[in-house]
Amino acid sequence: MELHLAPELQAKIDQLISESGITPEQLVEDALAGYIPELAGSREMLDGRYDDLKSGRVKPIPGDEVIARLEEKSKARRSTPGS
To answer: pLDDT, tens digit, for every residue of 72-83?
Structure first.
């Protein structure tokens, strides 16, 4: 497999490889071993949420209502003593 990376990322990888003594292949394998299960879990969760919406088990919340709820939470946090 051949990867083409941004120069900044390549420099960070090169530094990590140099400091840790692992091979580039080991670094990529370790990174993917952690990333793939996380990605699969996210996909599963999103698929489940989509299924819930499509079936009508849950109702979507309009965007303006979401913003209003978040603004309320933000105001409540600012007014709570000790925050």
So the answer is: 999 999 987 765
Phi (first) and psi of residue 60, to 5 degrees: -65, 155
Whether 2 has a pLDDT exceeding 90, the answer reads no
43-59 pLDDT per residue, tens: 999 999 999 999 999 99
Query: For the chain, what are the domain ranges?
Result: 22-79
